[in-house]
Write a structure and sequence with these properties.
With 761 residues, the chain is mainly beta. Helices cover 3% and strands 50% of the residues. A hairpin with a 6-residue loop joins strand 43 and strand 44.
């Protein structure tokens, strides 16, 4: 590489980047402030866990949100909640009472959320799985295996919505990986296999009510919805959020640096008499659609009718067998479009129901590589490939997390031949947040010699409360690709009340090829360091977080200078968080991109030649109180970009009217000036939602993208039943706006699905 263009720092080596962390980070003495009332440094080890008692009831309560049933009268009270925010360790500002009873079929949880200013309660949007952080809320965590790492989450808001998900690996997901793009992009890329899988939908119900003294919630969670072993003692915690105060409190106290998913701080729930009634359920779906692909030359609308579904059978209370036929492709939702000015592909989350249960059990990798990414099955080149059928066995057996998957896809001419996919995963949870596991992933095509295999081991070691070491190693097997087919990752992380940071090393061989995974790039060594200091000054600021980070990708490809720097970034920033949740980020980035081959930016005719391009850019992000009727979230960057410069701005304005209506306008704008040419990209979107009840809604998403050269509209009506099933009516329309002209595609879809208990319901 003889061509080098430097407009900032000289080429940085990892040692210098690590030194910058020490030199640039602000000395604690200059930022130290007195803690607020009741705030304290956490103990070295969690205190003795609280004990909660569940009692059997002969007459279960009626789930109507009115807590006047006789069943609640004799149940022990869990109360005396402790704040995590804003005053760590102080008693909650409002009283909360929780009672728990059970019968042979279900667990019932009653919550009394008293509030001296009940008129100021913030109810939030009235739709399933909405973001509960922007409203008053109650969340329940059940660590049913009592392993301190996995849990079921059930929650609600004053509107009575159903909010649920599965926690795996303490909610850690991919960790602090910095090399995947900007923060906004990484948030979009979180998938079902991360530390918290919010896309999982269980079968349960909740009801709420309000009066002048507060609000109340009544949960019914069937034992059949949960998975558990023989231990009748579970981990259990309850979180309450009072949004107008930006306050979060817990029944079993959790320090500020952790959250609800840090399960070794949960209390113990005793008294349960765990039943085993073999559950069998069917979830069939019927779909009728009419569509026309104008871009593909289709001259008339076609009609399509589909029938398929899933079956579930509990082999033991902890292990479930799932089967699928003509798998549901979750056609009722469309992906949010993204702007991509990089050389690398984007990740979109899994939404198909069959792949969501126990998705965390199958997750291996993180930090720019998911070794198993279920969206690779049944989707090729952006097109749907029918899944003819498959089975999955997942759960806990003999102290091990196990996951077995076998699934087959059909042929689509010109897209993909038939394929069979197999996954075998086993992991063991160990003491002190530690674990070890292994996975085998296989794709077999119909042609001779068409296969791909991935072998991997992974582990985590908890060192006290603050330190965690995670690592994984993998090798792939692909015909024609030999040597340099390994990958390795090791991350050493720190998380205390005052400090948060990590160092990470990765290696990806240039022939490492996990075809049933997601990998942004390969053929490199990756180094990363990150350090953040948390300051709690009081006054108008809740928290100030100065931090610095550095990462670099160093090439290990054939034909490229060894150690050639493909990408690097030094990031110096401070987050300013206000008491009401408003937040501002002010920072600078030194960014380097090294091109060992020409790069044509997607959606343009601009090709950037080989060379090294670096320079500085400034960035700012700002958002207001997102629970308010009118809120804003956005940011801007300006400075160096490849051979020239870029000015970018993005933002979302959201308007809410009570809990029944919300609309938001999103804009992502890039104005790029390069030596090879100039271009502008604009991505705009409008979301609209009207929520008749927590289970009946009308939503629309309109998106305009100059990079994709399309204008698209998605309108959907949903009438939900249990576990995300129900009636859906969806209209999609895509129009070309520049080089593309006229309609590109239209469709109308009507889908109905229903969960039917055929055994043990």
């Amino acid at each position: 590489m003889s061509f080098r263009r430097n407009r900032g720092l000289p080429a940085l080596r990892f040692g210098l980047g690590a030194a910058c962390l020490i030199a640039i980070s602000v000395p604690p003495s200059e930022l130290r402030a007195q803690d607020g009332p009741g705030q304290h440094e956490p103990e070295e080890e969690p205190p003795a866990p609280l004990e909660g008692l569940a009692v059997r009831t002969a007459q279960p309560p009626v789930v109507d949100g009115v807590l006047d049933d006789a069943a609640w009268e004799g149940a022990p009270v869990m109360t005396d909640f402790i704040q995590r925010e804003p005053f760590d360790g102080q008693a909650a500002s409002e009283r909360t009472e929780v009672r728990l009873v059970f019968d042979d079929a279900a667990i019932y949880v009653g919550v009394w959320a008293w509030d001296e200013d009940a008129a100021a309660i913030i109810p939030g949007d009235r739709i399933r799985d909405t973001e509960v952080s922007e409203s008053d809320a109650i969340l329940l965590a059940f660590d049913t295996y009592h392993d301190y790492q996995n849990a079921f989450i059930f929650g609600t808001t004053p509107t009575g919505i159903e909010y649920d998900g599965q926690v795996a690996n303490e909610g850690r997901g991919g960790g602090f990986f910095l090399g995947g793009g900007f923060n906004t992009q990484r948030r979009m890329q979180s998938g079902a296999g991360g530390g918290f899988n919010k896309n999982w939908d269980g079968s349960w119900n909740v009801a709420t009510s309000r009066d002048g003294e507060g609000w109340y919630a009544e949960f019914r969670i069937p034992f059949n919805t949960l998975r558990y072993g023989n231990d009748p003692t579970w981990g259990f915690n309850v979180s309450r959020q009072i949004r107008r105060r930006n306050e979060e409190s817990f029944w079993s106290a959790v320090p500020r640096e952790f959250n609800l998913y840090r399960l070794n701080y949960a209390g113990h729930l005793t008294g349960l008499e765990l039943p085993f009634r073999r559950l069998g359920s069917l979830t069939p779906y019927m779909l009728g659609s009419t569509s026309r692909d104008y871009a593909g030359g289709q001259t008339a609308f076609d009609r399509n009718y589909e029938f398929g579904g899933e079956a579930k059978l509990q082999l033991t209370q902890g292990v479930t067998l799932d089967a699928t036929y003509n798998t549901d492709f979750a056609q009722v939702e469309v992906d949010d479009q993204q702007v991509n000015l990089t050389r690398f592909s984007l990740l979109f989350p899994e939404k198909r129901p069959f792949f969501l249960e126990n998705a965390g059990f199958f997750a291996v990798g993180g930090g720019g590589a998911d070794l198993f990414f279920s969206r690779r099955i049944g989707i090729a080149n952006g097109l749907q490939v029918p899944i003819t059928g498959g089975v999955r066995v997942s759960g806990r057996a003999a102290g091990f997390n196990v996951g077995l998957l076998q699934i087959a896809t059909d042929r689509v001419d010109g897209v993909q031949d038939p394929n069979a996919y197999s996954v075998a995963r086993v992991a063991r949870e160990l003491l002190n947040r530690s674990r070890i596991g292994a996975v085998f992933i296989n794709r077999d095509g119909s042609a001779v010699g068409d296969y791909n295999r991935t072998y991997a081991v992974d582990g985590q070691l908890g060192l006290g409360e603050a330190w965690t070491l995670t690592a994984w190693g993998a090798q792939t097997e692909t015909p024609g690709l030999t040597r340099a087919d390994q990958a390795f990752d090791a991350t050493f992380g720190l998380n205390t009340r005052k400090w948060r940071g990590n160092v990470q090393y990765q290696y990806f061989g240039e022939n490492f090829n996990p075809e049933v995974g997601f990998l942004r790039r390969r053929g490199h060594n990756y180094y990363q360091a990150f350090l953040m200091h948390n300051v709690h000054p009081g006054g108008i600021f809740r928290e100030i977080r100065p931090h610095v980070s550095y990462f670099t990708f160093r090439s290990d490809k054939t034909g490229v200078e060894r150690g050639f720097e493909e990408s690097a970034r030094l990031h110096i920033d401070t987050h300013w968080e206000f008491q009401d949740g408003m937040e501002a980020h002010t920072g600078m980035n030194w960014v380097r991109e090294g091109l060992y081959e020409p790069f044509t930016i997607f959606g343009t005719d601009v090709t950037v030649p080989t060379g090294t391009y670096d320079g500085w850019e400034g960035q700012v992000r700002f958002w207001t109180n997102e629970s308010a009727k009118l809120s804003f979230n956005g940011g801007a960057n300006a400075g160096s970009f490849l051979s020239g410069s870029r000015r970018s701005a993005n933002g979302t304005v959201t308007l809410r009217s009570g809990s029944s209506f919300s609309t938001s306008l999103r804009l992502d704008y890039n104005d790029v000036t390069l030596e090879q040419g100039d271009f502008v990209t604009t991505l705009a979107g409008v979301n609209f939602g009207y929520f008749f009840t927590p289970r009946i809604y009308l939503q629309s998403l309109v998106q305009y993208s100059t990079q994709l050269d399309t204008f698209s509209a998605n309108v959907r009506f949903g009438w939900l039943n249990t576990a995300g099933t129900g009636l859906f009516i969806v209209y999609n329309d895509i129009q070309g706006i520049q080089d593309l002209h006229g309609p590109q595609g239209r469709s109308l879809i009507v889908k109905f699905s229903r969960q039917i208990n055929v055994l043990g319901g």
